[in-house]
Amino acid sequence: MARRSRTDPRPGDEDFVPLTDAERRAHAEALSIAHAGHNCAEQAASLRQAGEYYAILGEHDLAEQVFRQALGIEEGEPGAAQADYASFLLDRHRPDEAMAMITEARRLHPEHPDVFSVIGEALEEHGYAQQAVRWFTAGLVSHHGHLTDLDLDDLRDDFDTELLARGRYRARQSLGLQQDHIDALVQELQRDNAATADAR
């Protein structure tokens, strides 16, 4: 059996990738106590990650506990804890509470694209396509400050932009909305990616 190197990432480390349920549990436990007592952005982020791993493991009470802990940290990324908790609540079939969290996230004026993506994807996945379109679109506006000048390079060069545009495209398609220029950019990017893959 290979010995663990002193430099191997351990549970709780940023670059640790858990592959088994035991590793996921150890990682979640380590993340849940990381930066304890500091009430800092790093602690909030660690708690959110812990909640996601506990949810994957089916430890829903623990997941909810750490998500709610993250909500109480004022130094966290605005709207991020609310977004992750809302996604969890929708997965648990608690839409009223989830929508309240989404409303709270909006009130905090989020700026990070991940907040918009997480909420948009959660809404899309649970059948709220119209609201999902609004969140994906708001994310693009927040990230770029404009939409009319958005071009293919913006999607190619920035993963957050691509993620938001793709989510918006999917949600709009599910609603049967007429294609707009952002939808056309997503389709063009998909064609380019397919052509690149075929050429390999």
TrEMBL record:
InterPro entries: TPR-like_helical_dom_sf, TPR_rpt. TPR repeats lie at residues 44-77. Pfam families: TPR_19. The keyword rRNA-binding does not apply. The keyword Methyltransferase does not apply. Keywords: TPR repeat. This is Tetratricopeptide repeat protein. It comes from Polymorphospora rubra. The lineage of its organism: Bacteria, Bacillati, Actinomycetota, Actinomycetes, Micromonosporales.
